[in-house]
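User: Quick sanity check before I run a bigger batch. Here is a single chain. Can you write out its predicted 3D structure?
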Amino acid sequence: MTSNSPELSARAREIALELTSWPSVTGTAGESGFPRRLQEYFRFKGFEESILFPVDARPNLRSNLAVLKRGRSTQTIVLTGHFDTVPYDDYGALADLALRPEALTKSIISRLRQSGESSHALRDFESGDFLAGRGLLDMKAGLAAGLAAMEVYSGDASILFLAVCDEEETSAGARAAAPMLKSMEKEFGLEIKLIINLDAISDQGDGSNGRVVTYGSIGKLLLTAFVHGKQTHAGYPQDGVNAAYVAAELLTEFELSPLLSERTGEELAAPPTALHSKDSKTGYNVTTPQQAWVYWNTLQHKRTAGEVFDIAMEHARRAVERAKSRTGRDIDLISFVELRGKHGHSLPKQDTSLNFPEQSRLATLAIVESLGLSKPTVVMGFGSIPYSAVSLRDESLRAAISKAVQPFSLDSVSYFAGISDMSFFGEASSDLSVVASNTPIWGTSFTLAEPAGYPCINIGPWGRDYHHWLERLHAPYAFETLPKVLLAVIDAVFKKG
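Assistant: Done. Predicted structure follows.
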């Protein structure tokens, strides 16, 4: 079987349908069992060098799987991707077919035709170029292309296939895998030259925005504001500081801020938007809220976490000044690390069944209450795992890859627009010290090493509407083109040396 063989396309399709049929919803027994099934598949194919390593101690123990195809050279290309998927109850009556792409596609076509509604999805499915299926696009077709390429590769480079869990929630798999790669380099005597992430790209157009190689991945930070006000009776609002009102000033200041939206060439990182805003009241009375909790999604290209936090503090300062002017009250603005410095004691252990932002809120509240804080105060910080912006730095390596993908008409993009595991494998734009010191649950509810620092790119399938019952994969590109692209890039990187 050669890279130009029709058998390669058929093999990529066969593997993709097989992997999709294995349930692997995040946090379920299916996710825990998937890497063991994949390891058995590799053994059946004759790949004996593999490591199954645990990621966490949940009741359904989750694992990552690394499998090596050793070449004559120690120079190694890593093919990686996640195998967990979102649930499939959104398919409704078709849920039993969610993991059977061919049968599901026929049933969806029938459903859409019966609705009498002309739609983009129906036209796609009727063209014969798109396949439905939970996780087929995001991202088992990418894994399948990597596996098919790995099976037929006969060059001198070594190929390390790395399948990770939990990308859809907290990237626990990639966070555990990043330091493991360093250990595996030493244990197997390898020299990792490039990591190729196989994640999917959404394209609502003709596919030109999906047929791309991305030389980096966007970064994400979750900015938080804990507002501690001064309660008062609603009949005498000037006697206190309404925490909900102060939160509203912060929301107004931050929402879609152009100062926190970063541009690289023609690529624009989305501006910040509030993901949560809630005061502390749990029922009705005529007392103003004592506290409020707000957090924002922010995306970065090259900007450091320290720069983001400095801009955020300036935004918060302007919001607080407006609140002080309106209420006639003094309001402090401090960072979480400053609040923690006043406290000086260890934080109480958090309920790990809660999400990270809620754990961060409760940790901040515990300090505020232990200090007996009486003055209205806004505490700025971070509330979850940071995703570092990463970018391929070696220009000669970038040039070699660009030349290799030219015959396949792939465009080049600087940043993968979605949050991805690349943030933990690639070359980061900044250190995480500012985030670490201002995240209440850092080191207790989660730990995070610096990104591994390997050259890292993304080449994956494209399609539309992932995480939706109309999720669909562009099959010709995923099965016919993508495996050949991967083989061409592997050859180019190896020849560059």
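The longest helix spans residues 305-327.

User: Great, the batch can go ahead then.
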